[in-house]
């Protein structure tokens, strides 16, 4: 102590940090620092350790990682009995001293990135050890005492030469994290009977099969299972009993199929199966993402016993089979009831009396094959003025008859989980109907069009929500464009392949559209929906997402997962809807605006539907769109131009499309009529050419639309000219 120092002003040295230097050695005098409890000497050039270091019995933390220690360390390590954490990573050690078993207080041992060929035989005496990282060594086996590490929670042994784990893991009941990747393991390890094992990594080994008994020991806790780059050819069916599983990586194995039970794991959101010869599953399903694969697997079988599944995840085919079983079991009772009377039993009359009083009639799950005669507008209960809400779900109805149209006060009609194939068009005349829910039926596109095509339909001015999920739609029903008052449209779980040509701009009040779980390859011009606020198109086959969605002024929620698209990166999607919308907008040129929509008649599918189900003309009654940028100085002149130009354009294209779909026997006509058609077409061609010549004020999209229309007219003129010459 120097002369100017005072003993009472000095404190004991407790921590030493000399890391990230170039210290080649340590003096033996370090043993005099008896009060030191923490030493950090990582990132130096130490090749050996002085014996004095092992006299520091107060040490609880010692970090010697990233040095050049080699050979065998001194047995003096056993004297550091209070040591809780020891770091020897990234050295050149080949063995550890047996005396390390004396470190009874040791909790963390880091010995990765060395050249260790074995672990000390007495390592099992480290009863408090909870973290052991020994990856990137040359370990070929584990000592027998390893099974005594019952406090071990984290075990990282990846990048070694282990070929078997024998039974060393089966007793590690506290184990939460196990990493055995990049070894030579050929036999599935015997996992502990543990309620704690959360993550297991066994990739890059030589596993040919999974021990079902072993894997199911962690069924109540495991959330991550990684088995990539092995030799697995079959998964046990009961792997789906891992009901907490969130991530399953099976890439680069020899799997030809997956067990159906995986489809019912409601927490599973990351399923990696690339690099397998999965011939039993379509490529389009595989490329559509985790949810699409799960949905497909559910169609092939039921959930394993004991797995909690959501009701909506149960395969519809199985639901159908269950319904058929119930129908068969109750067939005698139903037949007797039908033969005795078309009415319901007297004991149910109180249900109708209560409905007349409350305004709500619930006939759910009554095994009905037809509508009871009491459910009519002119019956004893005066339902035409008293009934507001009717629920006929979970029955066996195949059609909704004209009888329903007499319930003129009806505001909501729910007929879910039936077998509906047709809906009588008269029901579309209900003047107050706001909610129509027809989920889980067998309605086709034509059936919906036929229902809505009623010329006396009033749904266009009153309907607020239409639910057609889980039906048999293959195209967008063209008649939906008549529902000008509709706010919510639900079309998920159908077979729709494209939205091209549908006039979304005519649905002036729709704010919520859900069309997920279809077969969509195109979203068409859905961004022209004026009030669109929420859009869901998850689990489809979309390869592109229109950037114009970023220009929708009211859009606040967009859901697009599980599509093979590359327009929006996964990192952007993970940040949420607002980030996606901004990303799409930024991909467009600066100051971009939505151009007025093209006609639905440019879609051949829509033209065919309209030829079968003509649409009432009510364009004048539709709300005017205010989402497109004006190109003239006077807003009124723009509106007049829309009425004078856009509507005639629609009618012109309509006439051409209707001409194209006429049958050969309908195309005949006198030459005078053909000459008149030629003159009309020539006038239209001249008008379009004049518009194209005067390109000022025309956007690129508008010019493209005009050119396309001009090409159609020229083709039509050639056909008409041929008729005249013939």
Rg, rounded, reads 37 Å
Based on secondary structure, the structural category is alpha/beta
CATH H-level superfamily of the largest domain:
Ribonuclease Inhibitor
Q: Any idea of the CATH class of the largest domain?
A: Alpha Beta
Mean pLDDT: 83
Q: Unreliable runs, pLDDT <50, ≥5 residues? A: 334-347, 617-673
Shape: elongated
> How many strand units?
25
Number of domains: 4
CATH architect. name of the largest domain: Alpha-Beta Horseshoe
Give the strand order, joined by hyphens, for the main sheet: 1-2-3-5-7-8-9-10-11-12-13-14
**Annotation field: number of helices:** 15
Estimate the helix proportion, in percent: 10-25%
Could you give a short account of the major beta sheet? Answer: 12 strands, parallel
Quote the beta fraction. Answer: 5-15%
At the third CATH level, what is the topology name of the largest domain?
Answer: Leucine-rich repeat, LRR (right-handed beta-alpha superhelix)
Termini separation: 122 Å
Indicate the topology.
Blueprint lengths: L14 E3 L20 E3 L20 E3 L6 E3 L12 E3 L4 E4 L12 E3 L20 E3 L20 E3 L20 E3 L19 E3 L10 H4 L8 E3 L20 E3 L20 E3 L10 H5 L2 H9 L17 H14 L1 H10 L8 H10 L1 E3 L20 H4 L2 E3 L7 E2 L11 E3 L7 E2 L11 E3 L7 H8 L6 H4 L2 E3 L20 E3 L21 E3 L19 E3 L20 E3 L10 H4 L3 H10 L17 H9 L22 H26 L10 H23 L6 H26 L1
Parallel strand pairs: 1-2, 2-3, 3-5, 4-6, 5-7, 7-8, 8-9, 9-10, 10-11, 11-12, 12-13, 13-14, 15-16, 16-18, 17-19, 18-20, 20-21, 21-22, 22-23, 23-24, 24-25
Helix pairs in contact: 14-15
């Amino acid at each position: 102590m120097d002369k100017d120092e005072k003993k009472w002003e000095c404190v004991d040295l407790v921590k030493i940090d000399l890391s990230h230097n170039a210290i080649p050695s340590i003096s033996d005098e370090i043993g005099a620092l008896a009060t030191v409890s923490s030493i950090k000497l990582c990132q130096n050039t130490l090749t050996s350790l002085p014996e004095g270091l092992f006299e520091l019995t107060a040490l609880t933390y010692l970090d010697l990682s990233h040095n050049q220690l080699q050979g065998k360390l001194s047995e003096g390590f056993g004297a550091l009995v209070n040591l809780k954490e020891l770091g020897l990573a990234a050295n050149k050690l080949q063995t550890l001293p047996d005396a390390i078993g004396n470190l009874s207080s040791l909790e963390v041992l880091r010995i990765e990135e060395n050249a260790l060929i074995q672990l000390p035989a007495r390592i099992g005496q480290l009863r408090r050890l909870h973290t052991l990282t020994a990856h990137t060594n040359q370990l070929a086996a584990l000592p027998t005492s390893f099974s005594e590490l019952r406090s071990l929670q984290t075990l990282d042994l990846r990048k070694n030469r282990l070929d078997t784990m024998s039974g060393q893991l089966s007793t590690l009941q506290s184990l939460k994290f196990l990493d055995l990747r990049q070894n030579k393991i050929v036999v599935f390890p015997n996992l502990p009977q543990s309620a704690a094992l959360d993550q297991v990594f066994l990739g890059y080994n030589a596993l040919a099969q999974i021990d079902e008994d072993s894997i199911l020991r962690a069924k109540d806790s495991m959330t991550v299972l990684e088995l990539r780059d092995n030799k697995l050819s079959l998964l046990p069916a009961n792997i789906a009993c891992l009901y907490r599983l969130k991530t399953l990586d099976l890439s680069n194995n020899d799997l030809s199929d997956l067990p159906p039970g995986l489809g019912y794991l409601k927490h599973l959101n990351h399923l990696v199966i690339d690099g397998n010869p999965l011939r039993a599953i379509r490529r389009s399903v595989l490329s559509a993402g985790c949810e699409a694969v799960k949905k497909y697997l559910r169609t092939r079988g039921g959930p394993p016993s004991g797995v909690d599944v959501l009701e909506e995840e149960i395969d519809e085919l199985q639901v159908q089979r269950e319904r058929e079983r119930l129908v068969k079991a109750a067939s005698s009772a139903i037949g007797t009831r039908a033969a005795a009377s078309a009415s319901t039993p007297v004991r149910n009359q109180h249900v109708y009396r209560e409905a007349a009083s409350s305004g709500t009639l619930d006939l759910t799950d009554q095994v009905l094959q037809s509508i009871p005669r009491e459910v009519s507008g002119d019956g004893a209960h005066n339902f035409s003025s008293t009934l507001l809400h009717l629920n006929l779900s979970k029955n066996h109805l195949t059609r909704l008859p004209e009888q329903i149209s007499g319930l003129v006060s009806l505001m909501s009609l729910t007929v879910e989980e039936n077998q509906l194939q047709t809906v009588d068009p008269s029901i579309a005349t209900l003047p107050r109907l706001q909610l129509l829910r027809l989920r889980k039926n067998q309605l086709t596109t034509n059936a919906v069009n036929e229902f809505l095509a009623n010329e006396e339909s009033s749904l266009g001015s009153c309907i607020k929500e239409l639910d057609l999920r889980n039906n048999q739609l293959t195209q967008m029903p063209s008649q939906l464009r008549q529902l000008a008052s509709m706010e919510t449209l639900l079309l998920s779980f159908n077979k729709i392949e494209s939205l091209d040509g549908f006039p979304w701009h005519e649905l002036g009040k729709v704010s919520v559209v859900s069309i997920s779980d279809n077969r969509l390859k195109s979203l068409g011009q859905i961004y022209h929906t004026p009030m669109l606020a929420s859009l869901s198109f998850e689990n489809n086959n979309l390869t592109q997402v229109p950037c114009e969605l970023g220009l929708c002024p009211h859009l606040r929620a967009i859901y697009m997962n599980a599509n093979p698209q590359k327009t929006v990166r996964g990192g952007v999607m993970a940040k949420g809807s607002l980030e996606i919308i901004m990303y799409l907008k930024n991909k467009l040129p600066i100051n971009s605006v939505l151009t007025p929509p093209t006609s639905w008649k440019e879609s051949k599918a829509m033209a065919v539907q309209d030829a079968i189900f003509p649409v009432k003309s009510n364009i004048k009654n539709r709300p005017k769109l205010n989402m497109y940028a004006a190109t003239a100085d006077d807003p009124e002149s723009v509106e007049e131009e829309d009425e004078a130009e856009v509507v005639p354009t629609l009618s012109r294209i309509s006439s051409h499309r209707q001409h194209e779909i006429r049958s050969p026997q309908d195309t005949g006509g006198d030459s005078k009529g053909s000459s008149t058609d030629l003159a009309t077409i020539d006038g239209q061609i001249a008008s379009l050419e004049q518009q194209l010549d005067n390109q000022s004020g025309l956007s690129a999209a508008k010019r493209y639309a005009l050119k396309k229309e001009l090409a159609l007219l020229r083709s039509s003129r050639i056909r008409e000219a041929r008729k005249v010459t013939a």
